[in-house]
Amino acid sequence: MKKYILIPLLLLAFTIKVQAQDDAIQRFFSKYMEDDRFSRVYISPKMMQMAGGFLKSNAGTDKDSEDLGELIQKVKGIRILSSDEVDGMTFYREAMGTLTKNKYEDLMIVEDKGSSLKFMVREEGGLVKELMMISGEAGDFTLLSMLGSFTYEDLNMLAEKTDIPGMDLYGKGSKGVK
């Protein structure tokens, strides 16, 4: 009898732990949503679908525009939190402390005197489900989270052919397929 009660409790505990990990970045965003020192941007999945659909429908014979339209529709949302009024390294360390380290894999790290920039990905089933960029330096902090279902080729194309915030920095890193 105790086994039958223990199994559902273990499953519930595992589910709660997974949800807590998924919500860590959301909690970080929520913590500073009302802070006037920060600019906050959220681009919904519906907006990405609309933009991708617009590109695809207006592509005509332009294969690149059609491909880019399909790719943009894979983006399930973008959240950006940034400020040029805070000690960015303090917020960088706080954001990094919020992350579940074993859930994200480092793609690129750039550290210089008083500044840090990190790109990380969260993969599931061989696809990138989240691209995260965190940067901090004196007087500047940015956190970008882009959700979707991408290959590394998709991310390279987004970096090369769009003006999605943060992707210009991603594009300066390695273009190789992982």
Summed up:
The chain is α+β, with helices and mostly antiparallel strands and about 180 residues long. The chain is about 45% helix and about 30% strand. It contains 7 helices and 6 strands.
Beta-strand segment tally: 6
Spatial strand sequence of the major β-sheet: 1-2-6-5-4-3
Helix content: 40-55%
Number of helices: 7
Q: Averaging pLDDT over every residue, what do you get?
A: 78
Keywords: Signal
Signal peptide: 1-20
Protein name: DUF4252 domain-containing protein
Pfam families: DUF4252
How would the blueprint of this fold be written?
Layout: H1 2-22, H2 24-31, E1 39-43, H3 45-57, H4 63-72, E2 75-83, H5 88-98, E3 105-112, E4 115-124, E5 127-137, E6 140-150, H6 152-161, H7 167-171
Antiparallel strand pairs: 1-2, 2-6, 3-4, 4-5, 5-6
Explain the overall architecture:
By secondary structure, this protein is α+β, with helices and mostly antiparallel strands. It has one domain. The protein has 7 helices and 6 strands. It has helices spanning 2-22, 24-31, 45-57, 63-72, 88-98, 152-161, 167-171; strands at residues 39-43, 75-83, 105-112, 115-124, 127-137, 140-150. It has a 6-stranded antiparallel β-sheet, sandwiched between helices. A hairpin with a 2-residue loop joins strand 5 and strand 6 (140-150). The protein is globular and about 50 Å long. Residues 1-21 and 174-178 have low confidence and may be disordered.
